[in-house]
Amino acid sequence: MFYIREKHIKQASTKEISRQQLIHLEMHAFQAQMDPHFIFNSLNAIHHYILTTSTDLASLYLTRFARLMRLIIRNCNREWINLEEDIEALELYLQLEQLRFGPQFDYELQIAPDVFQQVTFVPPLIIQPYIQEAIWRRLLLRPAKTGGCLRISISRENEMLSVRIEDNGIHQAPSGDDAHLSQGITIAAARLEAINERYNMRAGITEQELYNEMQQPSGHLVIISMQQIAAREAVM
Predict the structure, then answer these.
(1) Could you give the dihedral angle defined by the CA atoms of residues 19, 20, 24 and 27, in that order, rounded to the nearest 10 degrees?
(2) Distance between CA atoms of 104 and 109, rounded to whole angstroms?
(3) Which of 161, 169, 181 is nearest to 112 (CA)?
(4) CA 76/CA 124 separation, integer angstroms
(5) At a CB cut-off of 8 Å and minimum separation 6, what does 74 contact?
(6) pTM for this structure?
(7) Residue 73 maps to which CATH number?
(8) C-alpha span between 135 and 166 (Å, rounded)
(9) Number of domains within the chain
(10) Phi-psi category of 71—alpha, beta or left, where left has phi over 0 and alpha has psi -120 to 50?
Protein backbone atom coordinates (compact mmCIF):
# COMPACT_ATOMS: atom_id res chain seq x y z
CA MET A 1 0.00 0.00 0.00
CA PHE A 2 2.86 2.36 0.81
CA TYR A 3 4.48 1.65 -2.58
CA ILE A 4 1.20 2.25 -4.44
CA ARG A 5 0.62 5.50 -2.52
CA GLU A 6 4.14 6.75 -3.33
CA LYS A 7 3.66 5.83 -6.99
CA HIS A 8 0.42 7.81 -7.18
CA ILE A 9 2.02 10.82 -5.49
CA LYS A 10 4.95 10.71 -7.91
CA GLN A 11 2.62 10.44 -10.92
CA ALA A 12 0.53 13.38 -9.69
CA SER A 13 3.68 15.44 -9.13
CA THR A 14 4.96 14.64 -12.62
CA LYS A 15 1.63 15.63 -14.17
CA GLU A 16 1.63 18.93 -12.26
CA ILE A 17 5.17 19.74 -13.42
CA SER A 18 4.18 18.88 -16.98
CA ARG A 19 1.10 21.12 -16.73
CA GLN A 20 3.13 24.03 -15.37
CA GLN A 21 5.71 23.54 -18.12
CA LEU A 22 2.95 23.73 -20.75
CA ILE A 23 1.54 26.91 -19.22
CA HIS A 24 5.02 28.44 -19.26
CA LEU A 25 5.55 27.47 -22.91
CA GLU A 26 2.09 28.69 -23.92
CA MET A 27 2.84 32.13 -22.48
CA HIS A 28 6.13 32.27 -24.38
CA ALA A 29 4.34 31.16 -27.56
CA PHE A 30 1.84 34.00 -27.12
CA GLN A 31 4.67 36.51 -26.65
CA ALA A 32 6.40 35.21 -29.80
CA GLN A 33 3.17 35.51 -31.82
CA MET A 34 2.58 39.09 -30.70
CA ASP A 35 5.70 40.19 -32.55
CA PRO A 36 5.78 44.02 -32.49
CA HIS A 37 7.42 44.14 -35.94
CA PHE A 38 4.54 42.19 -37.50
CA ILE A 39 1.92 44.34 -35.72
CA PHE A 40 3.58 47.63 -36.69
CA ASN A 41 4.22 46.61 -40.31
CA SER A 42 0.67 45.29 -40.79
CA LEU A 43 -0.84 48.52 -39.47
CA ASN A 44 1.56 50.53 -41.61
CA ALA A 45 0.48 48.61 -44.73
CA ILE A 46 -3.19 49.18 -43.88
CA HIS A 47 -2.46 52.89 -43.37
CA HIS A 48 -0.84 52.96 -46.81
CA TYR A 49 -4.01 51.51 -48.34
CA ILE A 50 -6.10 54.18 -46.62
CA LEU A 51 -3.97 56.97 -48.10
CA THR A 52 -3.27 55.65 -51.59
CA THR A 53 -5.72 53.00 -52.72
CA SER A 54 -9.11 52.18 -51.30
CA THR A 55 -10.67 52.79 -47.92
CA ASP A 56 -12.90 49.74 -48.52
CA LEU A 57 -9.84 47.52 -49.02
CA ALA A 58 -8.14 49.08 -46.01
CA SER A 59 -11.25 48.40 -43.93
CA LEU A 60 -11.25 44.76 -45.08
CA TYR A 61 -7.63 44.22 -44.03
CA LEU A 62 -8.10 46.10 -40.76
CA THR A 63 -11.01 43.79 -39.95
CA ARG A 64 -8.80 40.76 -40.73
CA PHE A 65 -6.00 42.13 -38.56
CA ALA A 66 -8.38 42.69 -35.63
CA ARG A 67 -9.81 39.18 -36.07
CA LEU A 68 -6.32 37.65 -36.05
CA MET A 69 -5.33 39.52 -32.88
CA ARG A 70 -8.52 38.38 -31.17
CA LEU A 71 -7.89 34.74 -32.15
CA ILE A 72 -4.29 34.83 -30.91
CA ILE A 73 -5.30 36.35 -27.56
CA ARG A 74 -8.23 33.95 -27.14
CA ASN A 75 -6.18 30.85 -27.97
CA CYS A 76 -2.99 31.71 -26.07
CA ASN A 77 -4.06 29.94 -22.85
CA ARG A 78 -5.79 26.95 -24.46
CA GLU A 79 -4.05 23.61 -24.91
CA TRP A 80 -6.34 22.52 -27.75
CA ILE A 81 -8.49 24.22 -30.37
CA ASN A 82 -10.31 22.69 -33.30
CA LEU A 83 -8.50 22.67 -36.61
CA GLU A 84 -11.04 25.04 -38.17
CA GLU A 85 -10.04 27.83 -35.75
CA ASP A 86 -6.35 27.21 -36.33
CA ILE A 87 -6.80 27.31 -40.11
CA GLU A 88 -8.75 30.58 -39.84
CA ALA A 89 -5.86 32.19 -37.93
CA LEU A 90 -3.33 30.86 -40.46
CA GLU A 91 -5.26 32.25 -43.41
CA LEU A 92 -5.66 35.66 -41.76
CA TYR A 93 -1.92 35.75 -41.11
CA LEU A 94 -1.11 34.76 -44.72
CA GLN A 95 -3.51 37.35 -46.15
CA LEU A 96 -1.88 40.11 -44.09
CA GLU A 97 1.61 39.06 -45.19
CA GLN A 98 0.48 39.05 -48.82
CA LEU A 99 -0.87 42.55 -48.35
CA ARG A 100 2.62 43.67 -47.41
CA PHE A 101 4.67 41.71 -49.95
CA GLY A 102 2.37 41.56 -52.97
CA PRO A 103 3.75 39.39 -55.80
CA GLN A 104 6.73 38.04 -53.86
CA PHE A 105 4.84 34.88 -52.94
CA ASP A 106 1.54 33.06 -53.35
CA TYR A 107 0.19 30.34 -51.12
CA GLU A 108 -1.99 27.27 -51.48
CA LEU A 109 -3.84 25.67 -48.59
CA GLN A 110 -5.32 22.22 -49.17
CA ILE A 111 -7.21 20.15 -46.61
CA ALA A 112 -8.08 16.56 -47.41
CA PRO A 113 -11.84 15.75 -47.45
CA ASP A 114 -11.44 13.13 -44.71
CA VAL A 115 -10.05 15.70 -42.25
CA PHE A 116 -13.07 16.94 -40.31
CA GLN A 117 -11.93 20.34 -39.07
CA GLN A 118 -14.58 20.98 -36.41
CA VAL A 119 -13.91 17.75 -34.52
CA THR A 120 -10.15 17.49 -35.08
CA PHE A 121 -8.22 19.20 -32.28
CA VAL A 122 -4.68 20.56 -32.44
CA PRO A 123 -2.47 22.63 -30.13
CA PRO A 124 -2.67 26.31 -31.14
CA LEU A 125 0.37 28.32 -32.25
CA ILE A 126 2.28 25.26 -33.50
CA ILE A 127 1.95 25.51 -37.29
CA GLN A 128 2.17 29.28 -37.74
CA PRO A 129 5.83 29.74 -36.65
CA TYR A 130 6.97 27.34 -39.41
CA ILE A 131 4.91 29.24 -42.00
CA GLN A 132 6.38 32.53 -40.78
CA GLU A 133 9.88 31.08 -41.04
CA ALA A 134 9.20 29.86 -44.61
CA ILE A 135 8.13 33.35 -45.66
CA TRP A 136 10.78 35.42 -43.91
CA ARG A 137 13.84 33.18 -44.12
CA ARG A 138 13.29 31.69 -47.55
CA LEU A 139 10.57 33.08 -49.83
CA LEU A 140 11.41 36.76 -49.33
CA LEU A 141 15.07 36.01 -50.06
CA ARG A 142 14.44 34.86 -53.62
CA PRO A 143 16.64 37.02 -55.93
CA ALA A 144 13.83 37.70 -58.41
CA LYS A 145 11.53 38.99 -55.63
CA THR A 146 8.67 37.17 -57.34
CA GLY A 147 7.44 33.64 -57.99
CA GLY A 148 7.59 32.42 -54.41
CA CYS A 149 5.22 29.55 -53.65
CA LEU A 150 4.12 28.26 -50.27
CA ARG A 151 2.09 25.03 -50.21
CA ILE A 152 0.35 23.88 -47.04
CA SER A 153 -1.46 20.54 -47.12
CA ILE A 154 -3.23 18.81 -44.25
CA SER A 155 -4.21 15.16 -44.50
CA ARG A 156 -4.90 12.03 -42.53
CA GLU A 157 -2.55 9.09 -42.53
CA ASN A 158 -4.12 6.29 -40.50
CA GLU A 159 -4.41 7.79 -36.99
CA MET A 160 -2.00 10.63 -37.69
CA LEU A 161 -2.71 14.17 -38.77
CA SER A 162 -0.01 15.31 -41.22
CA VAL A 163 0.72 18.99 -41.95
CA ARG A 164 3.13 19.57 -44.85
CA ILE A 165 4.64 23.03 -45.35
CA GLU A 166 6.61 23.27 -48.58
CA ASP A 167 8.27 26.33 -50.11
CA ASN A 168 10.57 27.13 -53.04
CA GLY A 169 12.58 29.77 -51.22
CA ILE A 170 16.28 30.32 -50.65
CA HIS A 171 17.64 29.03 -47.37
CA GLN A 172 19.58 31.39 -45.15
CA ALA A 173 21.05 30.83 -41.70
CA PRO A 174 19.38 32.69 -38.82
CA SER A 175 20.65 36.17 -37.99
CA GLY A 176 20.29 38.41 -34.98
CA ASP A 177 17.65 40.48 -36.76
CA ASP A 178 15.16 37.60 -36.86
CA ALA A 179 15.80 36.08 -33.46
CA HIS A 180 12.04 36.07 -32.79
CA LEU A 181 11.63 33.54 -35.65
CA SER A 182 14.06 31.13 -34.00
CA GLN A 183 12.32 31.66 -30.68
CA GLY A 184 8.93 30.85 -32.20
CA ILE A 185 10.25 27.64 -33.77
CA THR A 186 11.99 26.56 -30.56
CA ILE A 187 8.88 27.17 -28.47
CA ALA A 188 6.60 25.37 -30.95
CA ALA A 189 8.85 22.27 -30.92
CA ALA A 190 9.12 22.34 -27.11
CA ARG A 191 5.35 22.66 -26.71
CA LEU A 192 4.70 19.74 -29.02
CA GLU A 193 7.22 17.66 -27.08
CA ALA A 194 5.62 18.62 -23.75
CA ILE A 195 2.13 17.78 -25.05
CA ASN A 196 3.50 14.51 -26.38
CA GLU A 197 4.81 13.67 -22.93
CA ARG A 198 1.74 14.85 -21.01
CA TYR A 199 -0.81 12.99 -23.13
CA ASN A 200 1.40 10.08 -24.25
CA MET A 201 0.62 11.13 -27.81
CA ARG A 202 2.72 10.38 -30.86
CA ALA A 203 3.86 13.63 -32.44
CA GLY A 204 6.92 14.98 -34.19
CA ILE A 205 8.42 17.52 -36.59
CA THR A 206 10.78 16.69 -39.45
CA GLU A 207 12.50 19.04 -41.90
CA GLN A 208 14.40 18.44 -45.11
CA GLU A 209 15.92 20.42 -47.97
CA LEU A 210 14.47 19.80 -51.43
CA TYR A 211 16.50 19.40 -54.64
CA ASN A 212 15.58 19.47 -58.34
CA GLU A 213 16.63 16.95 -61.00
CA MET A 214 20.00 18.73 -61.28
CA GLN A 215 20.57 18.22 -57.56
CA GLN A 216 20.34 21.94 -56.97
CA PRO A 217 18.51 23.29 -53.88
CA SER A 218 14.88 23.98 -54.81
CA GLY A 219 13.12 24.51 -51.52
CA HIS A 220 12.35 23.27 -48.06
CA LEU A 221 9.80 20.89 -46.51
CA VAL A 222 8.49 20.74 -42.95
CA ILE A 223 6.20 17.91 -41.84
CA ILE A 224 4.32 18.20 -38.55
CA SER A 225 2.63 14.96 -37.56
CA MET A 226 0.51 14.25 -34.52
CA GLN A 227 -1.85 11.55 -33.43
CA GLN A 228 -5.35 12.46 -34.58
CA ILE A 229 -7.99 12.07 -31.90
CA ALA A 230 -11.39 13.31 -33.04
CA ALA A 231 -12.90 13.65 -29.55
CA ARG A 232 -10.04 15.57 -27.94
CA GLU A 233 -12.14 16.23 -24.81
CA ALA A 234 -11.71 12.55 -23.94
CA VAL A 235 -8.10 13.20 -22.88
CA MET A 236 -8.58 16.65 -21.35
Answers:
(1) 60
(2) 17
(3) 161
(4) 7
(5) none
(6) 0.80
(7) 3.30.565.10
(8) 11
(9) 1
(10) alpha
How far out from the chain centre does Cα 93 lie?
10
Domain of residue 9, residue span: 2-235
Asked if 152 contacts 130 with a C-beta cutoff of 8 angstroms, the reply is no
Please state, in angstroms and rounded to a whole number, the distance separating the CA atoms of residues 63 and 68.
Answer: 9
pLDDT in tens, the chain (236 residues): 555 555 444 444 444 445 555 454 555 444 555 566 777 778 888 888 788 877 787 888 889 999 998 888 888 778 788 999 999 999 999 998 888 888 899 999 999 999 999 988 888 888 988 998 999 889 999 888 889 999 999 999 888 899 999 999 987 665 555 666 777 788 788 878 887 877 777 888 999 999 988 888 889 999 999 886 544 444 44
Residues 6 or more apart whose Cβ sits within 8 Å of residue 201: 195, 226, 227, 229, 235
Phi, psi of 217 (to 5 degrees): -55, 130
Comparing C-alpha atoms, which of 132, 118, 146 is closest to residue 188? 132
The pairing of strands 148-157 and 105-111 is: parallel
